[in-house]
Amino acid sequence: MRLVIIGGVAAGATAAARARRIDKDAEITIIEKGAYVSFANCGLPYRISGDIKRRSQLILQTPEGFFARYRINVLLNTEAIAIDRQQKQITLKGKEGFSTMPYDKLILAQGGSPIRPSFEGLESQNVFNLWTIPDTDRIENFIKENSPKTAVIVGGGFIGLEAAEALHKRGMSTTIVELTQQLMPLSDPEFGAQIAQVFEANGVSIITGKALVAVDEKAHLARLNDNSQIPADLVLLAVGVHPNLELAKKSGLTIGTSHGLAVDSSLRTNDPDIYAAGDMIEVMRIPDGAKARIPLAGPANRQGRIAATNALGGSMQYPGSLGTSVVKVMDHTFAMTGLSEKAARTAGIACRAVTVHRPHHASYYPGSEDLSLKIVYQEKDGRILGAEAFGKEGVEKRIDVLAVSIYAKLSLEDLTALDLSYAPPYSSANDPLQMAAFAARNDMIGFSKFISAQEAFPLIKENSAAVLDVRTYNEFVRGHIRGSIHIPLDELRDRIDEIPESQILIVSKAGFEGHLAYRQLVNRRSGTTKYISGGFTSIQLIKEFNELIEEGE
Question: Going from the N-terminus, what domains does the chain have, and what CATH number goes with each?
Answer without folding.
Answer: 2-111+242-311 (3.50.50.60), 127-239 (3.50.50.60), 331-442 (3.30.390.30), 450-551 (3.40.250.10)
